[in-house]
Amino acid sequence: MTMSNYQELLKQREELEAKIREARETELKDAIAQVRALVAQFDLTADDVFSSGKRSSKSSGAKVAPKYRNPATGETWTGRGKAPKWIADKDRDQFLIA
């Protein structure tokens, strides 16, 4: 490949990148117009369109009643998460709260 071919290819690339930018801008304007029309037609809010998909449950963050009690200290544990040392590797039935 000679230098002139290389220069020609670089020029073609620049021209092609310019055409790509122009096409994107035109299509982007059309897409924004369509989105705005749909938002207006259905009276949508940003939350409607861009919701995170996460739904909070009513029990989210709610306290859970303790299920186990350490008879020596009165310390309790719900049975969720990592077990405390006083109940780890032991029969948990003996620590159940009635």
TrEMBL record:
Residue span(s) of domain DNA-binding protein H-NS-like C-terminal: 58-97
Species this protein is from: Comamonas serinivorans
Family to which this protein belongs: Belongs to the histone-like protein H-NS family.
Record-linked Gene3D superfamilies: 4.10.430.30
Keyword annotations: Cytoplasm, DNA-binding
Name the UniProt record assigns to this protein: Histone
GO cellular component entries: nucleoid
Any Pfam family: Histone_HNS
Record-level Gene Ontology MF annotations: DNA binding
